[in-house]
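We read letters as residues; the fold follows as tokens. A sample entry reads:
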Amino acid sequence: MAALIEIKVPDVGNVADIDVVDVLVKPGDQIKLEQTLAVLETDKASMDLPSSAAGTVQEVFIKPGDKVSEGTLIATVLASAEENSVAKPEQPVQEAVAPAPALVAPASEPAVVKPEPLPETLTGSSVSSAAAHATPAVRLFARELGVDIHKITTGGGRKGRILKDDVKNFVKKVMAEGTAQSGTGIPSMPSVDFSQFGDIEEQKLSKIKRLTGQNLSRVWLNLPMVTYHDEADITEMEAFRVALNAEKSKDDVKITGLVFIIKALVSAMEQFPQFNASLSADGEKLILKKYFNIGIAVDTPNGLVVPVLRDVNRKGINELTAELAEKSNKARLGKLMPADMQGGCITISSLGGIGGTAFTPIVNAPEVAILGVTRAKMQPVWNGKEFMPRLMLPLDLTYDHRVIDGVEGARFMAAIKQYLGDIRRLLL
């Protein structure tokens, strides 16, 4: 018996207004279970939306350029009970394309920002008598931004209807004009025609990279950042790690040094709560967090993504090792969900597998600090009597100077070094 099945956007981790990049089916198409129907894109990743039913597409309700959310109707499929007897709703599959935290990954906890008063040109004293052609939702959106919708003379919608994008573009235009007139803005980079020097190739930046660039600039301009460099002696820690892995079977997941760094970082955060905090949007309050979630950079074929390990203070080394391996594998397969990359308290950006001696990672706002790690190497260290070979790990701590001063940063790093130098202290 045939049945008409509605296919909707499943739970995508509380993310709204997801862009529809491509629609891969049309009415009349025969589709299989889990066949990709559309490609969606958030500010953190791209997602393939698989079908939860097999059969004939009857109607498609979305098109490229639309915005969807959880529960949005995608298509209807006419399918027999036999074809779908084992059908189960699937989560969309994500492409891992988020940037490295060293380059500021998309913020794990978007700060709630109260809109600043907009220039008078947005509201104006004179209001057109003509009624603006816009839906109530768009009118509300304009009011929230402080925009007089009557100032928008043309809309991009059908029959000149004003859309949200028209309101956004109007704000951008007015703010750009205001900046140019005030002379307080940062001069833009000049446009250069590189083709005059030789052959070139242009590649369009993805939405994720564009948003990352905006976030980079915003953080760099708004946060007074300081980077503190030091080294930790991990000779004993590495010996212990090697001994633990020797006890594991061939199929067991091996423990990496990164897991010990995660535990040491959390212990230091418990000792210095201001590092497990965020500054309120108005800069008047410090929001101290009682949970300990750590973002970890994972290298994938499509770039770096930052899955978040939750409640790290409640988990042991073996449990964290298994969880880190699982999320790293999901990231490389492009199966991380938006919720997997949200809620971080502090981020670790590790270049240990590549090399380097130091770098200056940018804080992943609204977090207040980020820990950079590079490759450990054997060095001669003076113990008071002689030089001894010790395995030294370079660490780079960047912090928001509005929240953390230099002494606190140095003490925090000293605590991390102490825990890594003698991992027995993690039991205290």
About this structure: The chain has three domains: 2-95, 120-179, 209-427. Residues 120-179 form a domain with the Dihydrolipoamide Transferase fold (CATH 4.10.320.10). The longest strand covers residues 387-400. The two ends are 65 Å apart (CA to CA).
